[in-house]
Design a protein that fits this description.
mainly alpha
Length: 255
């Protein structure tokens, strides 16, 4: 058992090092890829615009549930007017970036991994290499940059829709004073809270996009390999997002 655990640890560290090298390779190709602006905008559309429906619906329902649960909790202490503060801080700092990253990994991340994996299985990437075209700069980097750009934007939209959902439940259904809801939220949510949400969403965007393109680019050229790469993308992204969320939260609390 200990031998298997040690072998798994070594393989994980080796995979982590390979992923870091792959990230450095992507960063080296980024300046040249920025000249192909149309490729990046296409990927922003594929990963961002096509994910808006699930992001907005999820944000609305998460905000509504947060409004219900927050109202029930605050009512016990006679502080229903602080519902706006609780909902905004919870969404901007925590739920917005984390849930958006998980949805991004499940929708856009799997699409990127399966697309690159299919290109590997059909020898399209090998054909590019034979024509002296670097597939990392031509195919991988635009998809990586598209995910990095869209992730903070999707997190912001998720938080805004979530705050509206909390306001809809709290003010319209639970009859919380609307003026108190908005005024306490505006006075309590500061620039530090917004910066924490922005940093989290940006880091999650880099992590989820890197995992997706790495798994797809290095997928085994078979149907089973593409499926395994897609599964690893979702599982690894979820674990990494939650781990990074703890590290960033601890950093901001200590700072």
């Amino acid at each position: 058992m200990f031998g298997d655990l040690w072998t798994s640890l070594i393989e994980s560290l080796d995979r982590l090092g390979d992923m870091v090298r792959f990230l450095l390779r992507i960063l080296a190709q980024t300046p040249r890829a920025l000249l192909r602006f149309q490729l990046i905008t296409d990927q922003v559309y594929n990963t961002g615009a096509l994910s808006l429906v699930i992001i907005m619906l999820s944000g609305l329902f998460v905000g509504m549930v947060l409004g219900l649960q927050g109202f029930e909790l605050l009512q016990r202490f006679g502080s229903e007017e602080a519902l706006g503060t609780a909902a905004a801080i919870g969404l901007v700092k925590e739920l917005g970036p984390v849930v958006t990253a998980l949805l991004f990994a499940g929708r856009a991340g799997t699409a990127l991994a399966s697309e690159l994996g299919l290109m590997r299985a059909t020898d399209q990437l090998s054909a590019m290499e034979m024509m002296a075209v670097d597939p990392v700069g031509r195919v991988v980097v635009p998809r990586f940059l598209g995910g990095v750009i869209t992730m903070p934007l999707l997190a912001a939209i998720f938080s805004m829709i979530g705050i509206y959902g909390a306001q809809l439940v709290g003010v319209q259904f639970m009859h919380v004073d609307g003026g108190s809801f908005w005024s306490q939220m505006q006075s309590s949510v500061g620039l530090r809270d917004i910066n924490e949400g922005i940093v989290k969403s940006a880091v999650f965007g880099v992590a989820c996009s890197l995992i997706a393109v790495y798994e797809g680019y290095h997928a085994a050229p078979t149907a089973e390999g593409v499926g395994a790469a897609t599964t690893r993308t979702v599982v690894t992204s979820a674990v990494i997002v939650l781990f990074l969320d703890y590290l960033i939260t601890a950093f901001f609390l200590r700072g």
